[in-house]
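haha ok so turns out i had the wrong file open the whole time. this is the CORRECT one, sorry everyone. sequence first:
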Amino acid sequence: QVQLVESGGGLVQAGGSLRLSCAASGTIFRLNTMGWYRQTPGEQRELVATITPGGSTNYAYSVMGRFTISRDNAKNTVSLQMNSLKPEDTAVYYCYSRYFSSDAWGQGTQVTVSS
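then structure:
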């Protein structure tokens, strides 16, 4: 089984920064598309950012210019640097992995941004 474990969530004031990390195991990491999604209670899970095996990135419009996704294939990790945080960024953030038809999700980590 693919296992994804997130870390780095917490409470931060508006305008502050957080860095989320996701450690992957049980997969050929360098061949996976990785991503971050977020979800608030009662809402659909929303794509935040993705990164392909080749390093191409894609971002939700709401986070462009503020968030940066990166990967370290030597450590089997993917990170999300979040700057200029806003209260509307408050959500549970989930790490995501895809290899062909196989998807996997982490358990989620809470990010709370206070005004």
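The radius of gyration is 13 Å.
again sry for the mixup
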